[in-house]
Amino acid sequence: MKLRMLALVLGGAVAFTAAAEAGGYKEGAVKNGGTISGTVKYTGKALPDKPTGKDEGACHKSTPDPTLTTKDGKLANVLVFLKKVKKGKPFTDAQKKVVADQAACIFVPHIALVAEGGEVEFKNSDTVLHNVKGNSIRNGQFNEGVEAKKSLKKTFKKGHDVIKVSCSVHAWMESFVVVMPHPYYAVTDAAGNFKLEDVPAGKYNVIIWHGTKKTECEVSVDGKGASKQSAAGVKVKVKKGKEVKIEATFN
């Protein structure tokens, strides 16, 4: 029997479906696994910095919009993951315990990936009060203050969840917590790159998701002609010990 769910993030204008086999993901050694790697580009206009106007001793007067962080046309903070993975490599310890910092009135990282059943420590490295506020159908609601130089920990028991997290004290502060049902998730780095390693051989759908642009991008696989990403994602075939390369472009 399959369990289907809808992950909905209202403020980020995001909605996507995911599915998992009953019984959950099965961890085990992956021999001679393949790799899915790639780069995400952005050809649109850069967004102006967001003015803050509050707590300028701790916060900058303005801050870049983390949803469109680009360098040389490459796009950071894009979520890339595989759908419907039944078994594969184990979660790492680093995926089970994650730190999401509030530093200079910005959430770092912008997208925090945590394993199903894992823990996120929301840290406040600033000298002013922050809070963390999230609303999830699968993992419930939370809205708690975090005093200066303190932290709080929360456990997220149910995977297939994307949770928009904000700070009610500083309205420009927004981020996401993604609760992974399996470890084949990645976020693009400052150069727009991502890599999923130790992928068992087989056919997969890759989802490339951006917090404001959603999945509306052009994608090419192994240098072949680009096409629009469908709601089901990008179809790829992973061979033992081989690498699949993806290039995606948002505009």
Q: What are the key terms here?
A:
251 residues, five-stranded mixed beta sheet, mainly beta, 2% helix, disordered N terminus, Immunoglobulin-like, 26 strands
Give a written overview of the molecule.
This protein is an all-beta fold and 251 residues long. Strand 15 (130-136) and strand 16 form a beta hairpin. The model is unreliable at 1-22 (pLDDT under 50). The termini are far apart. The protein contains one helix and 26 strands. It has a five-stranded mixed β-sheet with strand order 21-4-26-23-24, with no helix packed on it. A five-stranded mixed β-sheet has the order 13-19-18-15-16. It has one helix spanning 93-96, and strands at residues 2-9, 14-21, 26-27, 34-42, 50-51, 62-63, 70-71, 74-75, 79-82, 87-88, 97-103, 106-108, 111-115, 118-124, 130-136, 140-146, 151-156, 161-166, 174-180, 185-187, 193-199, 202-209, 218-221, 227-228, 234-238, 243-250. It folds into two domains: 32-52 and 67-85 and 185-251, Immunoglobulin-like (Sandwich); 90-182, Cupredoxins -  blue copper proteins (Immunoglobulin-like), CATH 2.60.40.
